[in-house]
Amino acid sequence: MAIFLQLLFTGLGIGAIYALVALGFVLLIRAASVVNFGQGQFSMVGAYLLVVCFNVLGLPYLLSMLIAVILMAGFGVLFAGATYWPLRHRGGLPVIISTIGASIFLENIVLVLYGPSPEVLPGLFDSPGIQVGPVFMDSQYLSILVSATLLVILQYVIFEKTLLGKKLQATSQDKEMASLLGIPVAMMILITFAYSAALGGLAGMLVAPVLFVSVGMGGLIALKAFAANIIGGYGSIPGAILGGLALGVAETMGASYISVPYKDAFAFFMLLMFLMVRPQGLFGEKISEKA
Amino acid sequence: MAHVDLASARIWRGAPQAVAACVAVVALAFVAPAEGYYLNILMQAVTYAIAVSGLVVVLGYCGQISIAQAAFFGIGAYGVAIGTGDFGLGFVPSLLMGVAAAGLLGLILGLGSLRLGGHYLAMVTISFQQIMTLFATNWISFTHGPDGIRDIPRPTILGVSFANGHAFLALCLVCLVFSTLAIWRLKTGRLGRAMQAVRDNELAAGTCGINVFGTKVMAFGMSAVMGGVGGGLFASGFQYISPDQFTFGESIVLLTMALLGGVQSPFGSLVGTVVLVLLPEWLRFLKQIYLAVYGAAVILIMVFLPDGLWGLMLDRVIRRSKPIVGDVSPLPLLSEQGAETDEIVLKVEGLAKHFGGVKALDGVDLAVRRGSVHALIGPNGSGKSTFINVVTGLYRPTSGTVTFAGTDITHAAPHLRNRAGLARTYQNIRVFRGMTVLENVMVGAERPGNDIAENPAQVVDRALAALDFVGLRADAHRQVGALSYGHQRYVEIARGLAASPQTLLLDEPAAGLNLTEKHELGALLRRLKGHGLTILIIDHDMNLVEQVADHITVLNFGRRIADGTPSVVLANPDVIAAYLGEPRREAA
Prior knowledge:
The structure holds two protein chains of two kinds. Helices cover 74% and strands 3% of the residues of chain A. Chain A has one domain. Chain A is globular and about 60 Å long. In chain A, a hairpin with a 2-residue loop joins strand 1 and strand 2 (135-138). Chain A has helices at 2-32, 39-56, 61-84, 92-114, 139-161, 163-173, 175-180, 185-211, 217-232, 237-257, 263-277; strands at 129-132, 135-138. Chain B is α/β, with parallel strands linked by helices. Chain B folds into three domains: 15-248, no CATH class; 337-421 and 502-588, Rossmann fold (3-Layer(aba) Sandwich), CATH 3.40.50; 429-500, no CATH class. Chain B contains 25 helices and twelve strands. In chain B, strands 8-9-10-5-11-12 form a six-stranded mixed β-sheet, sandwiched between helices. Chain B has a four-stranded antiparallel β-sheet with strand order 4-3-6-7, with helices on one face. Chain B is elongated, with a radius of gyration of 28 Å. Chain B starts with a helix and ends with a helix. The chains are: A mainly alpha, B alpha/beta. At the A-B interface, helix 4, helix 9 and helix 11 of A face helix 6, helix 12 and helix 14 of B.
């Protein structure tokens, strides 16, 4: 039981990372109908920016994170400019392929700059963690869980309580109508890219002390975040969060109780199972094309 | 018999080129170096090109992204390596085993398309790719793990030894010639057209009798088979394989080759493969950032070269297809005489469709008599379009039944309804934009169940006849997107007519047409009348409806408010109040 609770805690921690990345995914799908295959590389670039600010420039940790998040937002706009903007009128496929191109480009550029050996980042807190009953709560996993919760609340407030949030929602629901109402749709889409990149970057920074910072860290996270999206339900925000958490827990338990080498395969098997049995996911609705 | 010649010409199309190409490549293989570096480069280019041509089928023709081609390549390679090594089989059985395994897994991956749209399916293919890499690396007892497999033999087939480099390269090249020609021919065949129709417009493909799901599964299967063949030859060619040759990164490389060359043609994918196999050799000084350049190239190709190098070359060389002149047999329906009968061909009872709390259709009854022109009218939001979408199977009804020609089709898939003889057009035009006018109409003509569907020459003949009827014969070889809006609508009508349906459903055919075009449309519909074809027309245009309708049904708020002959219905005060909203004189 103690082991089970310990695994549950760790699983939720890693699941929160998947949830954050999945959230970035969903927002872009909703706002711009873009399935961004470079979402994982947002996390990777974010983590490397933190390495630059903290390890290289020696800035304080929280300030480094802040700067890195701001840079990521700008990076999101650049990313949109290269992969989405020139192709936005040509349907979904070309944009998908160009985001794939961007992900390859980013990984290999960082590889050239930093080499294949992973960088090490310390945790947010010096203390290793606290013992609560039978469970040892690692301080970085706690930071991840707390940050993820705060971000979800913040996002809820922005989307539901502010005018900007309403405009973003309007854009994601009906671009044509939104633009007729005077909402600058292009701007809203760029904001979504910026936010999505910042979110992905932050997820990368939070998970960096646990996983090491490496060029390949993003790809796998993104695939799992994608699986989380399907498990939670296509385009569903609560689905992305719960799907991410469920996946993190399932994977951690699977690795411990079933097989370590195939740890990364559990996500894909869960994904395939959901596709067979419940393709609309936990929260999704079946979407059919309008005739 | 002009069309018989056409048919035999089609069967042998490409055969002389195939023979010439085979001779040329065998000669080339024997002047090429028999071993060493340059042989390796050639072998890599050829085996990759076979795998990349599979992407032309799945991505180019069918419009589905598959990012697992390296996995299928690997499955073919492991088939040969494990089959010849551990199982002690010959090369050919081993290759067939690997290719069968790849094809089967490709079909299974394609099954995912039942539930998932394009981009999500793409993610599933990546997941598949990752799982395969995990297996290749970790299932050591079967795959020999990360060390790979050495000393894979080259085959002796029918007593001919392919052990030497010349001979094996020749074998690979001949395979490449055949795969390239097969895929080139596929494009202009029935299955290839079906794939392109699915790519361009899934809904319209379904209502043209194409089994959309089956077609996608087929495309995935074929693509995987090509991957497997390429991989099997690769294993025997290099005599050594390891899991890192078949990773996600390699899948991206294969995808880039297809995109760079041009994913609409196997010649394009061949050009792309050759360029990208040679490029790293020319760009050796880039070694470090080689993959970064690759990534950037993908974006640049998508932005600046959407049709790839091959597309660019075709644009430079002016190509103009000759118009097909000469007589065609007129549409069979025009030779028939048939007035309205009492037989009910389409019967709808208590049809309801609720979207959440909105009752778009709320218990509608409708009976269409064979040979009649039946109009369904009603104000905006009255449920007309929902009605036609439920009847053609695009929406599932909440309750009620639809009976067509005596068969209950309430739960049949759209393509099965079309096969039963139900054709339709769309209010917001749904033509297949990547295809020519003729090809669009041919898709209609070759619906399973049509009398001439199995004969390619007669399909062309029927399609031309339908284009003749709507007056677009001269535009047969133009891209459909180059036509005006009104003419695109005629292409849809021709597509429906070429299918020789029992019943043609016209969804607001006059929408978006200017006055002249509306007159033309009216004339066209009058010409169709009296030939025994049943037409259900949905429209707002009272002028048009009055001209052609034998019978009118009026919907409002999802309910039927009137039904009968035009004079009776249009005098009905409820109809005037609900639909016209003012005295009829002024509305008309």
